[in-house]
Amino acid sequence: MAKIFITNREGAESEIEGEIGISVMENLRDNDYEIEAICGGQCSCATCHVYIDDAWMEKVGKRSDEENELLEELECVQPNSRLSCQVEFTEDLDGLAVTIAPDE
Amino acid sequence: MTETFIVVGAGHAAGQAVATMRSKGFEGRIVMFGDEPYVPYERPPLSKALLAGELELERTYLKKESWYPDKDIDFRPNTRVTAFDRKARTVTTAKGEALSYDKMLLATGTRVRKLQVPGAALDNVFYLRAIDDTLAIRKRMAGGSRVVIVGGGYIGLEVAAVAVKMGCHVTVLEGLERVMSRVVAPEVSEFYAQVHRDAGVDIRTGMAVSGFEGGGAVERVHCADGSSYDADLVVVGVGVIPNVELAAEGDLAVDNGIVVDEFCQTSDRHIWAAGDCTNHPNSLLGSRLRLESVQNAVDQGKTAAAAMCGDRKPYAEIPWFWSDQYDLKLQIVGLSEPGDEVIIRGNPDERKFSAVYLRHGKFVAINAVNMIKDFMAAKKMIAEHRAIDEDRVADAGVALKDL
Predict the structure, then answer these.
(1) Which of B19, B295, B324 is nearest residue A32 as measured by Cβ atoms?
(2) Where are the domains of chain A?
(3) Cα separation, B396 vs B403, whole angstroms
(4) Least CB-CB distance to A44: which of B23, B331, B401?
(5) Closest CA to B47 of B147, B185, B193
(6) Testing the interface with B: which of A19, A24, A38, A71 to mutate, by most B Cβ within 10 A?
(7) Beta bridge mates, B220
(8) How far apart, in whole angstroms, are the C-alpha atoms of residue B309 and residue B365?
């Protein structure tokens, strides 16, 4: 198991033992964080938006073109924005820190 | 006294609702009844990744199986609620058990519309609504299988895309003159029919299936025009019917769905309903409607559960839908109507275009094919009833949001 540190929309910080091999979105959803993830991880809806802690940006990797197009249309997009359904949680990401973006 | 909430159904709306009940701080008893053996799951992958064998079953679950006992939710799989008594506030199950409730949520969803033609009960004639349907189809479907799909809607075409990729010989028989006619513009139907044909799918429109032939298992599909198609298996996707019988027998108002208000409350103040089974008002659209959609199931599941916990917020979202076929992402916002004006943006030949619907000059709906930015912009613009520069819609070089 590996850790994920999460800051919720109210700014409260917490940590979970993440499950390896599934997405960060699925980890957040399984632990009752307030993301919608309506499309279930199909990169179709942009309702699982998170900000990746800058220190992790490189390890997390780049957005796909589709993901980029979804993100760019959000009002709260930042350079460190990702759709959490498109980030697979791996051993390498042990200690990953994310902030859940505002609902929009 | 501890309060009891009963949830009838264990689909997307129910799964969302029980999660919301707990996140809103409801500490009473929650009992959720489902017909199927599975915890609430995502249905969209059933005709896509799960059918293709690209997704493990457990990853379709909205929450892990262990989440329910952890949250003290009493989930009763394989248990159908057969009746309820509004006055006594009790439900009865097919197993003969009776349970009392303080508040109840009906999330009974829909069931598939079955074909009423000779031979419809033959083996290997499948419908697709539940996990077990997908698993059964997958078992029968292999490279070289002759697959006949009845119905060229979302489900039929998604199954066709998976089957042809698997190496099956696929024929789609659509009753109307074009595929997905209920949900997309003629230009989009034409584009999708061509994409399927290019992939090797035999798409036939205007075909009324008159019967199935075979000894035990289906071997051939017959159409009213006299044509017939050899088949190793048939998948039928010709729409769904809302499950309203329980509500109607329980004396709730029913009219193409269980009638609810903007808080998902039924005509009984102790009973709510959510998801595909509801006939609900939508102030953004200015009408009542019944929807078959994940977005609606999730949002109504939330609205109903919050209202049951005393947090009443009206439901009003512009409906949106999606369908993945091949490398194409079809995203739909809003509800089109016959008579709407349709303007095409972008180029179907480049597999990147949108059909924009205008009604009396107002932007009301969009079919976006690999046009993610249009989809995202449309969600906001349609909800805000924003005006649109009609003369420039066709120019895909201008961002939709800037029109």
Answers:
(1) B19
(2) 2-100
(3) 10
(4) B331
(5) B147
(6) A38
(7) B213, B230
(8) 34
Whether residue B100 lies within 8 A of chain A, CB to CB, comes out as no
Report yes or no: B386 at the A interface, CB cutoff 8 Å.
Answer: no
Q: Dihedral of the CA atoms B250, B254, B257, B259 (nearest 10)?
A: -100
**Residue in B closest to A67 by C-alpha:** B372
Does the distance separating the beta carbons of A69 and B373 come in below 8 Å? yes
Q: pLDDT over 70 for what percent of chain B?
A: 100
Could B59 and A22 be called an inter-chain contact, meaning their C-beta atoms sit closer than 8 Å? Answer: yes
Chain mean position to CA B273: 16
Q: Under CATH, to which class is A2-100 assigned? A: alpha beta
How does pLDDT run across B87-104, given as a tens digit for each residue?
A: 999 999 999 999 999 999
Tokens at residue B206, please? 């205007």
For the stretch B104-115, pLDDT in tens is 999 999 999 999
The whole-number pLDDT of residue B123 equals 98
Whether B329 sits inside 8 A of A66 (CB atoms) is yes
Residue A90's CB: how many other CB atoms inside 10 A?
A: 14
A34, closest residue in chain B (CA to CA): B23
Both tokens assigned to B116: 């009423």
Phi-psi group of B78: left, alpha or beta (phi > 0 → left; psi -120 to 50 → alpha; rest → beta): left
State the alpha helices, DSSP H only, in B243-326.
245-249, 294-308
Contacts with B64 from chain A: Cβ below 8 Å: 30
**How far is residue B398's CA from residue B34's CA, in Å, rounded to a whole number?**
48
Domains of chain B, CATH where assigned: 4-111+240-308 (3.50.50.60), 125-236 (3.50.50.60), 327-402 (3.30.390.30)
Any A CB within 8 A of B133 CB: no
Q: From B131, B153, B103, B109, select the one nearest B297 (Cα to Cα).
A: B109
